[in-house]
Design goal:
There is one protein chain. By secondary structure, the chain is of the alpha+beta class. The protein has eleven helices and four strands. The chain has helices spanning about 10-15, 20-50, 65-110, 115, 125-155, 170, 175-195, 200-220, 260-265, 270-275, 290-320, and strands at about 230, 240-250, 255, 280-285. Helix 2 runs parallel beside helix 5. The chain has two domains: about 5-225 and about 290-320, no CATH class; about 240-285, no CATH class. A four-stranded antiparallel beta sheet has the order 1-4-2-3.
């Protein structure tokens, strides 16, 4: 994003927070470097093992060190992916806290906003300019991070030390959900900043509000799309399916859950389920084909909540400063 392309209040906003913008871009570049390093480290481990003429698994003592080095390198590459996913998870919280505190509440607390409002800039236009800059930055950087993460995750150490698409940190790291989460963080941060009007307090409140919203979405995620139920003896997950509830069905179709029996008879869970009337096994899953429906539904919820939060922020601003 170039400052030359910005005009009026957007340019002023960029100038006020240019250090934060450049730091954000630098951190994004570091994140990309970490994900690229993960892919290269994983590829290097594969090449080294191939050069040694050794299989991934085997009992040949001459390959022991090569196989161990391969496993260590792949584990290190996996950890890099995990760290990148954790960063993507907390990104909306950081965005919300920054917008709520340094960008909005600090100006409202210090009264510097009054200068802008005397320059033929309405309160609504002032707030729109404040929100436009981080929104443009988010829509530019987050999709790039999402694409690079998918490239690193899907072609890196996923087969030897897998991280699955449905894991909380991985699910929010690629696809369209990262962008939707980031926009939700910005919108909630905007609403909190306008309501609280105290820099440090606004940052804390925004972090908590965004964190709670993301935690609730994560908790409800498995119910955003109808699950597929497998039945029969010895049912197991299909490929990279997301396993949910499992147990046994009674003759009347009632469910005896595995976790209920494990809590009372962990040494023989199947006997417990059979004693409670279970006659055949069942397993609820989200197959890999449910990835995009889940992404779309969660993104839609995030964007709807973001629109409501942004609307509330503008309504409160107009009510306080007509």
């Amino acid at each position: 994003m170039s400052a030359l392309a910005l005009k009026g209040p957007q340019w002023v906003t960029f100038r006020q927070h240019r250090r934060a913008v450049w730091w954000s871009l630098a951190l994004a570049a570091c994140a990309v470097a970490v994900m690229v390093a993960s892919r290269m480290w994983s590829d290097g481990a594969v090449d080294a093992l191939r050069t040694a003429g050794c299989p991934v698994n085997g009992s040949d003592s001459s390959c022991f060190q090569a196989q161990r080095d391969y496993a260590d390198d792949q584990w290190f590459a996996r950890n890099l992916v995990t760290y990148a996913a954790a960063g993507m998870l907390v990104l909306p919280v950081l965005l919300g806290a920054f917008v709520a505190g340094p960008m909005l509440a600090r100006e409202l607390e210090s009264g510097t906003y009054k200068l802008a409002w005397t320059q033929s800039i309405s309160p609504v236009r002032w707030l729109a300019a404040k929100v436009a800059v981080p929104t443009a930055l988010t829509l530019t950087v987050v999709p790039l991070l999402s694409l690079v993460f998918y490239w690193s995750w899907s072609t890196g150490p996923a087969d030897d030390f897998p991280t699955y698409w449905y894991e909380p940190t991985v699910f929010v790291s690629f696809g369209i959900v990262p962008v939707a989460h980031a926009l939700l963080g910005l919108a909630l941060g905007t609403a909190v900043g306008i309501l609280v009007r105290r820099t440090v307090v606004a940052m804390g409140v925004a972090a908590v509000v965004v964190g709670v919203a993301l935690a609730v979405l994560s908790r409800l995620r498995d119910g955003l799309w109808p699950v597929r139920t497998l039945t029969g003896s010895g049912v197991s997950t299909e490929g990279h399916a997301w396993p949910l509830d499992r147990g046994m069905l009674t003759a009347s179709g009632e469910r005896v859950l595995w976790q209920d029996c494990f809590a009372v008879q962990s040494d023989n869970v199947e006997r417990c389920m059979t004693a409670r009337g279970g006659v055949t096994g069942f397993l609820d899953i989200h197959p890999a084909s449910h990835y995009w429906p889940l992404q779309l539904v969660e993104s839609g919820i995030c964007l709807a909540l973001a629109a409501l939060a942004a609307y509330a922020a503008f309504r409160v601003l107009r009510a306080r400063h007509p």
